[in-house]
Amino acid sequence: MHYYNDAPVNGNCTWGIGTLAHLGPCTQEELQRTVLPEQATARNRPVPAGRTLTVRRLCTGVALCLFASLSTAQATTPSIDDFQGKWTVTDVVGYGNTSGGIPEAKKLLGKVLSISAGGIEFDRERCKPHKVGIAMVDTASRLKDDFGINLEDTGLPANTALLDSSNCTAVYRMDEHRVLFEWDGVVLRAVKH
Question: Which residues face 34 on adjacent strands?
Fold first, then answer.
């Protein structure tokens, strides 16, 4: 397993299925280096010497890239238009015991989440929401309620737009180009086409 940059521009040094090694791009030396087994915990995350990793219920310890979206404020009232479109999964943020773990999570990378006025479609499953609510939310408390994960593990801003589709899935808007959502016990990040 090797380190890689998770985005071609403004990416962060990552390894595995989206595990953040550190903020900012990998050095040339890191890109050549192999991630050694002793650098990982049982949850597959490298741990710097002298530190321990606290693993939370749904979180794999995978941190998202923490770049521009952390300071991006959304000045306008969110609407369905902010979410509609096609979003390609780029990262696994976490997974629960009911998900099928890393093998199933890896299968979701590259899949497309489609959001339209008619419904939400992902991995050949289509869901027509009974009702749709769009609101600005306190991200930390909603993440705990929805997924059992901490704000620090996601890279989401403290307050963000949320598409709450009752019987489908909650979709958090990271910024105009990225969203975070859950599917079958796996929490994912996706970028807009």
Answer: 2
**Which residues, at least 6 apart from 120, have a Cβ–Cβ distance to it below 8 Å?**
113, 114, 126, 127, 129, 165, 168, 169, 171
- State if pTM tops 0.70: no
Query: Domain boundaries in the chain?
Result: 68-192
pLDDT tens track for 30-88: 888 887 765 643 334 443 444 333 333 333 333 333 333 333 434 467 888 999 999 99
Distances (CA, A) of 136 to 14, 73, 106: 30, 11, 30
